[in-house]
Amino acid sequence: MENFDNPNIENQSAINLNKQEEQFQSRIDMIELRASLEKVKSEIGKVIVGQEKMIEHLLAALLSNGHVLIEGVPGVAKTITAKLLARTIDVGFSRIQFTPDLMPSDILGTSVFNVKNSEFEFKKGPIFSNFILIDEINRSPAKTQSALFEVMEERQITMDGTRYAMGEPFLVIATQNPIEHEGTYRLPEAQLDRFLFKINVGYPNLEQEIAIIKNQHESKKEDKTEGINRVISAEQLKNYQHLVKEIIVEAQLMEYIAKIIINTRENQFLYLGASPRASLALLTASKAFAALRGRDFVTPEDIKEASYAVLRHRVIVSPEREMEGLSADEIIRQILEGIEIPR
To answer: Are 191 and 176 within 8 A, CB to CB?
Structure first.
């Protein structure tokens, strides 16, 4: 005869229930991170109408500790959004306007002779900050652009045999205009590959355009960044970046990332596929998108969402397909649709 009042059975049931609850509980506490990023969005939203995708990608790059290239026609809030993001975080900010006559020393710094001690002293350039906004990066020639290679990849510069490390965090946000090519210099693939994301910014829709006009009409501020509060400290940001690295990625999702990258190399419509650096970038970015959603694990949707911004500047469409009007985004979409999503 079964004993329905056996306390051991009740205890075992309670243990099993607790195990099930633990299985579905978040293993990493993402509450503070998500709340802080929502505050950042709220502060930026005081000025910027729409452009949610650009803001979200900038936050993902922030969490990934990766650089961003923003491409869009003039007047779509590329520069002001980057300035507002820097304003919400308690770190140093530096803006560099690239021009055809800009020299590498204008960015990195130069050695100056000190007559008092008869020695050369290194005077640091504007690159020595935490948030670097480079406006119209394609306005400067290759010699100046190459000055960014070491600092973007290794977060240091070497001058006169001496190594100077950048402070943390260190983020480069560069802008460029996709339609005006007179007096511009195409970025080499080696430099493009150093950007975690390339964000394409489009025009606002009708409702957003009306809201922009209304905000401008009602605003009495000369400086648009006035009234934007700092909501994250440098130490908090470093902690969040470390937290994102701990986000769980299942083995089948790592294989999914690898398949996407391999497909770019084997795709008949692409002249150049993505490198292993793209695989690592996609992994890191997927973790950041998971964190933005408040999750401690990556899903296939996170990978798909990150794929366009991670890959569009790392692949080259074959000339024949480019003449037909086929874009990198369209080919990436076809690749994603052709790979079975892991379950």
So the answer is: no
Amino acid at 182: E
* Planar angle of CA 319, 323, 325, nearest 5 degrees: 120
The whole-angstrom separation of Cα 309 and Cα 113 is 45
Report whether pLDDT(278) > 80. yes
Q: How far is CA 110 from the centre of its chain?
A: 30
Considering only CA atoms, which of 65, 35, 53, 55 is closest in space to residue 284? 65
Question: Helix, strand, or coil here: 321?
Answer: helix
Mean pLDDT, to the nearest integer, of 167-179?
88
- β-strand pairing of 171-176 with 131-135: parallel
The pTM for the full model equals 0.85
| Residue in 185, 200, 174, 175 with CA at minimum distance from that of residue 67 | 174
At 82-123, the pLDDT tens digits run: 889 988 998 889 999 999 999 999 999 988 877 878 788 889
DSSP character at residue 8: H
Side-chain-facing half-sphere of 37: CA atoms under 13 Å = 25
Distance of CA 232 to the CA centre of its chain: 17
In sequence order, the β-bridge partners of residue 199 are: 70
